[in-house]
Amino acid sequence: MKKAEKKDSYFITLCLLAWPAILEQLLLTAVNYVDTAMVGSLGYQATAAVAINIPVTWVINGLVMGVSTGYSVQAAYGVGAKDKERTRLVIRQAVTGVLAVGGVFTVVGTSLSSVIPYLLGGAEEILPDACGYLRVYMLSQIFVVGTAVFSAIHRCMGNTKFPLWVNVGANLMNVILNFFFIFETRSAVFLGRTIVIPGAGLGVTGASLATGISLAASCLILAGGLFFRKDGYAVHGNESFRPNKTVVREAVHLGFPLALERLAMSSGQLVMTRVVAGLGTVSLAANQISVTAESLCYLPAHGISYAATALVGQSVGAEEEESALSYGKVAV
Question: Model-level pTM?
């Protein structure tokens, strides 16, 4: 009886931590639908210009997942062991890691942004928009990395609600900014009155710019949440942010295998995109719409993985092997 009760408590704890992350993924999927529809209203060429770059974002997100895991799991260890000084050190190292990795991605990505869509088989008619979209996206890499890393750290410290509201808010901001950046200035009728909606008319590049600004907002808010915590884990600006060999080595040990795994999967997606692009611009656009719909099937499962990572990590940090194994089994 006691074993059954204990198992139930593990399951309940996992669910309490997982539901905000699951809801976040569902809401982000809904926002992605809206985003795809807004770009798609410009025509199939615009959708294809975004689609040709999607596998590149998958590659980057896979590498970023490795970085975020490397630091966030160490934060979970610290919280589990109730070692506030160690946890603060890991968070500071994560900030330094975000700036370093994001800077490298920015330099490499922007230098290759005019080449990658061509190598992936993009038709001449979509290359200008595709290159412009990718260039702007690559310029925001510090915020891409920061949003992922800081979200993961909050979750591994047991707070999945804060990243939920920040990331959903940022994505709603993305949709709103799309209205102003993608489309030209136009008139609309609202409650019987004609109003003028200003627009920059940047098209596909405007969609990327809106994404970059929303990522910057979420990254800064999530970082602020780590600096202004009230539980003794808050990071202070006067503390050292110099790279710590032990933390960096452990981050590589934890994150590198995952980054390789995601890179292997993303490589297949790159090849698939190259094949679909060879079928024509319409096929490429259709594939993008299908992939967006497909994401509904697997993104919610990320919520369970976030909760499992936090609970198993905290259990390991507290040297509670039985709890770590039980949370892993319950998550499966």
Answer: 0.91
